Amino acid sequence: MCGIVGLFLKDKSLEPKLGEMLTDMLITMSDRGPDSAGIAVYGTDRDGFAKLTVQAADPSRFAGLDKALGQAIGADVTCRVIDTHAVLELPEEKMAEARAALKADRPDVRVMSAGEVIEIYKEVGLPGDVAKRFDIPKLTGTHGIGHTRMATESAVTTLGAHPFSTGGDQCLVHNGSLSNHNSLRRKLKHEGVEVETQNDTEVAAAYLTWKMREGASLGEALEAGLDDLDGFYTFVVGTKDGFGVLRDPIACKPAVMAETDQYVAFGSEYRALVNLPGIEDAKVWEPEPATVYFWRH
Amino acid sequence: MQTYDLAAEGLRGLNEALQAQTAQTNETAWEVVNPRGSHAIAVGLDAPIEVQVKGSTGYYCAGMNQQATVHVTGSVGPGVAENMMSGTVVVEGDASQYAGATGHGGLLVIKGNASSRCGISMKGIDIVVHGNVGHMSAFMGQAGHLVVCGDAGDALGDSIYEAKLFVRGSVKSLGADCIEKEMRPEHLEKLADLLERAGSDAKPEEFRRYGSARQLYNFDIDNAY
Questions:
Q1: How many CB atoms lie within 10 A of CB B203?
Q2: CATH topology for B2-215?
């Protein structure tokens, strides 16, 4: 069992409250996943710059990281440390160089996400505690996805928590379990797609990244997943300007969606949605099995 | 009328109060406000009382019901009226998966749509869905009636025993050993009674009946691998 929440804002006036609303939804889903929690937030796009969110068990490893990376790529890098995570901001075209430099200089510092707008925070612990550590209620943005984890497939670790990001500004969270992730991991490796953990969900994320790299849209990649991913899943996926939902054909993992003029919201249960503005008059429905739902800004 | 504010007073108090009612109770009308998608609202009731839930509920609303009438004005999560023995449960909105699962008796009415596995392993319950039902509905249904005024999803009545299924709209596909059957006068009569009790104005003649081909009852060597 796991809990998923997601919010895709249509009304810009709600953007300052994205973190606050997502945190409330996430905490409501604590009893579906009390062992770890994570959140991906899509914030403001600063032209020409990109963000690299990194994690280290010991935050002292972030000391001097901005200078070291700045020197390696020959550009200014800013570093904002939040508990065990740090958000590095750097020129967009230097991202690949920066990641290579990070790997060489501090291999124990792990990348959570990379992209123009995405930031991912995830840790072991109760969702409320995780949200507090990273000050999630203060985050602003256009859309976000959160996950509360009750591990079934791999260990309870920071890296095993969701969301998983395997491509620029992409992220995926999952409720369920995949049965063919080992063979798919080998296939992806052959295609040159890196999967870092033993977690089944990361393989699904990497699969979608690979499909999109081959030219598929997120919708098409999810559609292809219906044939290639075996197991139980409710996925919620984010891209720079998009938000998607897919359930497997058996659809035993719960899902509820709500839509108003102001937002599209996802919850594993209706409970997660009850504090959203105008929920009483929202269109509320259960997403159909094996059906791709997708919204874009 | 007793009014219970679930958000203020908590779930355990509600179910204790409702379960404490006896056949002789004078407190026969209850209203539950602020359900906010909570789980296990009004479960295990065993008295002829009427409970109205004002809003939407989470998992297992009105489970194991006996005698009571539970009316939900919103939608319900998975497993509404699971294992109901008798009484009536009415949902004004939609129902999530496995509505009325394993029910032995009573009447479950869903005025919106029910999703997958509606009436799974039903054992005598009557279920009337005004809208559509999802895939694998009435899976392994043993007894009782499932009436669908809209359409049915894939694999309707898979591995069915003796539950009787009536569908007015289309059936996406029939499950293993489920076949269309002749609608006889006694079926039309039963259907008319169920539709009336469920507040539906659909005509019994518009429905088709489905049930077991009874080919899975006994071991057949040709089915062995």
A1: 12
A2: Pectate Lyase C-like (2.160.20)
